[in-house]
Specification:
two-stranded antiparallel ribbon; 5 helices; about 190 residues; alpha+beta; 4 strands
Length: about 190
């Protein structure tokens, strides 16, 4: 599939589909406003087998980052104390010994929920918020913590790679709305 998108198409879609102001000027969760308690209850009724499917990417040095955006790197795992440290006597506090480690990562280097404050359109963040409110101290507006009571509901997983008959999608491959609809129909997802 070859979907061509240019700057004009992005600008038009951004204007046509914008939800800025829909829930007031102070809104920080966007379309998560549509998730109601009843939706969460209904979603829980869809569970039939109790199977869990991990959608996470491995948290290791072989992750997806290649330095393309802002010098991002894959997670770096470092042991601070190990079992060999414990048995060779390097640590001994009241007979308690331990292993300890640290991970240094860019948040985009692992699977995560992205906050609305991570992207700007022209000179504004979502809902017209000033990007200057997102500084070295963090996301002072539009942080992920604003969605803490809304992140439960029905999820839809479509296997586009299987639908296309390939093992995976290449970086940058687009997926059209028509293809999503066709995939959902073929895979029996309502």
């Amino acid at each position: 599939m070859d979907i061509k998108v240019n700057l004009e198409a992005i600008k038009k879609a951004s204007e046509d589909l914008s939800n800025w102001g829909r829930w007031g000027k102070d809104d920080q969760i966007g379309t998560l406003n549509l998730v109601r308690p009843d939706d969460i209850i209904e979603a829980s009724k869809l569970i039939k087998k109790g199977k869990v499917f991990s959608l996470g990417i491995p948290l290791d040095r072989d992750g997806p980052q290649n330095g393309l955006f802002g010098g991002r790197f894959n997670p770096i795992h470092q042991m601070l104390a190990t079992g060999t440290d414990a048995v060779c006597g390097r640590q001994d506090w009241n007979k308690i010994r331990y292993a300890d480690d640290t991970i240094n990562l860019c948040v985009q280097g692992a699977t995560h929920w992205d906050a609305l404050g991570h992207i700007f359109y022209e000179d504004r963040a979502y809902n017209g918020h000033d990007p200057k409110n997102i500084d070295v101290t963090g996301l002072n507006v539009l942080g992920i913590e604003n969605s803490k009571d809304k992140m439960n509901g029905r999820g839809v997983l479509l296997d586009i790679a299987r639908f296309r008959g390939v093992d995976w999608l290449q970086d940058g491959e687009g997926i059209s709305n028509d293809e999503l609809d066709a995939c959902a129909k073929k895979q029996g997802v309502e």
